[in-house]
Amino acid sequence: MNILIIDDEAQIRKLLEITLNSNDYHTLSASTAREGITMAVVHPPDLIVLDLGLPDEDGQVVLSKLREWYLGAIIILSVRSSEEDIVKALDSGANDYLTKPFRTGELLARIRTALRQTQNVATVQKLEFDNLAIDLTTRIVTVDNQPVKLTATEYSLLTLLAKNDGKVLTHQYILRGIWGPGYTEQSQYLRVFVGQLRKKIEPNPNNPKFILTESGIGYRFCTKQEE
């Protein structure tokens, strides 16, 4: 797997190169937005680790430019920790967001998850997570091998989350994807449907193991093994 690092801090690039190379990833590095975009075009990587504080162009702009054509995974690694920056990056197509300083073990776990997300799910006919199964052909959802009756909206919400296993989806992204652009400010509306869905698929809706809340941002679908 090839990973492109776009970060202007030499020490961070070196740390990432050592960490990733020792875990059997091949790395390419760029210190500017221009250099990073060029590398991504010439040698398309499997995943990009992108800093937002680049010297020649803001990383949010770089992210938007990359998402015009790049279909691989992108993880933001930045000192910016505001909710606004995180939501904006996720809405612009980032698979995940980590703030500096970071733990290398967590970064590696996020990379593994992001790489799985980019696998082609078009040919997948069934999604299975512990005791939860979603048959995409028949639209049948089972928990402990027992069918669960979902409304059309609940099924759409569940499959959107499950197909993005491990990825934080913002409130606006989910609302736009399920209900349309006119509902992007209806976060309370979404919370009601998530609550209903949790009652049907979670062993303990008050302590969910599948649909996790990312406070102030959105929701993350998480398998038992990744908790």
Task: Kindly describe this structure.
There is one protein chain. The chain is built from 8 helices and 12 strands. The chain has 227 residues and is an alpha/beta fold. It has a 5-stranded parallel beta sheet with strand order 2-1-3-4-5, sandwiched between helices. Strands 6-7-8-9 form a 4-stranded antiparallel beta sheet, with helices on one face. Helix 1 (10-21) links the parallel strand 1 and strand 2. Helix 6 packs across helix 8 (187-201). The radius of gyration is 18 Å and the shape is globular.
Notable features of this structure?
five-stranded parallel beta sheet; four-stranded antiparallel beta sheet; Arc Repressor Mutant, subunit A; Rossmann fold; 22% strand; 227 residues; 8 helices; alpha/beta
Residue-averaged pLDDT: 89
State the CATH architecture of the largest domain.
Answer: 3-Layer(aba) Sandwich
Please tally the helical runs, counting DSSP H or I stretches of 4 or more residues.
8
Please give the alpha-carbon distance between the first and last residues: 24 Å
Radius of gyration: 18 Å
Compute the number of strand runs. 12
CATH class type of the largest domain: Alpha Beta
Order the strands across the largest sheet as they lie in space.
2-1-3-4-5
Query: How many structural domains can be distinguished in the coordinates?
Result: 2
- Portion in helices: 25-40%
The CATH homologous superfamily of the largest domain is named Response regulator
Unreliable runs:
none
**Beta-strand content bin:** 15-25%
Choose one word for the global shape: globular
> Could you give a short account of the major beta sheet?
5 strands, parallel
